[in-house]
């Protein structure tokens, strides 16, 4: 069963996410869910369908994005990563940390 949630995004992040979603012929919701599933799958090294995720309660969840950082956080390669995997993960990290915004 799907559950609704509210997230708050910086305007520039939302703008880029909408463009990316449209370029992949996806809804914004599907685009965000796909990013989360990819992240979960990459971190668990198992298919997203086999993950058992149980919320502690039925309370609404909120996602908070950090204020832009002054120092860029760099992702480390994992076993089996291609350069494209690392670049893609770095791009997501830059978006969620706000690195490079306003430059």
Question: How would you describe this structure to a colleague?
Answer:
This protein is mainly alpha-helical and 103 residues long. It has one domain. It has three helices and two strands. The chain has helices at residues 11-23, 28-44, 83-97, and strands spanning 6-7, 62-63. It has a two-stranded parallel ribbon. Helix 1 packs across helix 2. The N and C termini lie far apart (41 Å). The model has no long low-confidence stretch (mean pLDDT 75).
Summarize this structure as a short list of keywords or feature phrases:
103 residues, mainly alpha, two-stranded parallel ribbon, 44% helix
Give the structural class. mainly alpha
Q: How much strand?
A: under 5%
The span between the termini is 41 Å
Question: What is the typical, i.e. mean, pLDDT?
Answer: 75
Number of domains: 1
Q: Give the % helix.
A: 40-55%
Q: What's the overall geometry?
A: globular
Q: Number of DSSP helices? A: 3
Q: TL;DR of this structure?
A:
It contains three helices and two strands; from the N terminus they run E-H-H-E-H. The mean pLDDT is 75.
Topology (SSEs and partners):
Elements: E1 6-7, H1 11-23, H2 28-44, E2 62-63, H3 83-97
Parallel strand pairs: 1-2
């Amino acid at each position: 069963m799907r559950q609704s949630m509210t997230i708050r995004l910086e305007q520039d992040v939302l703008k880029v996410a909408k463009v990316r979603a449209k370029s992949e012929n996806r809804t914004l919701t599907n685009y965000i869910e796909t990013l989360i599933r990819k992240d979960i799958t990459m971190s668990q090294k198992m298919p997203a369908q086999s993950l058992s995720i149980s919320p502690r309660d039925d309370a609404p969840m909120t996602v908070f994005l950090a204020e832009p950082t002054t120092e860029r956080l760099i992702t480390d390669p994992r076993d089996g990563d291609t350069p494209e995997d690392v670049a893609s993960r770095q791009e997501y990290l830059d978006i969620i940390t706000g690195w490079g915004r306003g430059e």
